[in-house]
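[Target chain]
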Amino acid sequence: MSKKTPQVRFKGFTDDWEERKLSSISERVTRKNKNNESTLPLTISAQDGLVDQNDFFNKQVASRDVTGYFLVKNGEFAYNKSYSNGYPWGAIKRLDNYDMGVLSTLYIVFRPTKINSQFLVSYYDTTRWYREVSKNAAEGARNHGLLNIAPTDFFNTLLVVPKIVDEQQKIGSFFKQLDDTIALHQRKLDLLKEQKKGFLQKMFPKNGARVPELRFAGFTDDWEERKLGDHAKYRRGSFPQPYGNKEWYDGEGAMPFVQVVDVTNKLTLVENTKQKISKLAQSKSVFVPKGKVVVTLQGSIGRVAITQYDSFVDRTLLIFEDYEKETDERFWAYTIQKKFEIEKIKAPGGTIKTITKEALSSFDVHLPKFEEQQKIGSFFKQLDDTIALHQRKLDLLKQQKKGFLQKMFVS
């Protein structure tokens, strides 16, 4: 038998880890919710654990009867057998934030008995157990997105765990501290995004208004209302047909080719476009220097970016090439983004199915003097940079956690 030790360990621990069936270190929970012992419906989120779903139930099913659901108590675990991103065989999460709640009987619920609970939280963030649960899954493993595994087979899954409880505790505490740090950075990021959302509402005029609610000192003039087509000069991108011709892609001298998929929801293009346009095809497309505003007209309609690099652009995007008056590009990008948000609300079903150049040209836009545009553009640029910095920090912490999970558990 191969040695069962992780790559990285806390000082003082040298014993091999041991294989244990889940049934030997936990017990199944099947208590039912009686007499409205709890009316708090829960669901399992792969990222957020066992989450309160009261808002959903209140909005969708005002008087839902949850009698007969499994009653889950604080510190107990539940297994969601459905696929979710990053959790190919479903997520296992512990109830931490509430005293009790209720879950559908489709879930498998259990409590740890002979293992450190916090260690188990981290263990179920690793990928090892997926291999075990897949071994125990029945043939034709999925039915309507749910894994076809009986509770008996689920509790037969093998875990490789430290024999020493102190080592379990140290590992659990380490990842708890890391998770708390990640959660703190996530809250900071969410707060910044909410603040930005509030500023966008207050620093641009509401419908029918000539001035915004919040302005920089020294600016008092009304914003000018104009038709978009009278203020901006724009054109669609282009690409030679047929799209599938291999001569149009890659090769020496190839350049980034921007399509809808390359426009993010952060006013930027992706770092590397999905396709590169060949030198042969470049004369048949539309060149866009960096620093220009583009907007998607098909698919994910209304996504806006300020190009960070020279590129060629597909016909599914519109390029703002010039303006009748001096215009700050970042201010203009937010103006277009907000305009599409308004149009989406007005559209049937809250979705714009298509948009033409002619329809776009009739959009009303509000424009302050260039100096005020610059102030607004710079303010949001600084805010966007701060959000991006916090996002990078959060992504780095998540990557570090992923690395520790690989090295501090037996793979």
Summary: The two ends are 14 Å apart (CA to CA). The chain has a mean pLDDT of 90. Residues 121 and 398 are 16 Å apart (CA to CA).
